[in-house]
Amino acid sequence: HLSLRRQRQMCIRDRGYTKAEARFVRFIKATANNFPESNILIVSHGMELSFGINGLLKQPRMSIRERGGLTNTSTTILSTTDGENFVIKDWNNTSYLNKKQDDSTTI
To answer: What is the pTM of this model?
Structure first.
């Protein structure tokens, strides 16, 4: 398995959305399968998370904005029971920031 650092280096070299989404999906599925009983924290840029989560949910790219964007420093929680199929438990939660969010803070 590739380290997160190595995946980031690969992403910098090849920034294509399709390839970045595929890498994200592979990494998350592998991580979920390697640690099936664990809660896992993934920290990333909102755009990468948006495309990657769309890939995990098997949604078409054009639907990326249907759930709304991801705000800087927000928390999104996904759940899986089999490491293959994912559901959203919480999307773009910013309640702990105690600050009104706007278009300048959301991807």
So the answer is: 0.76
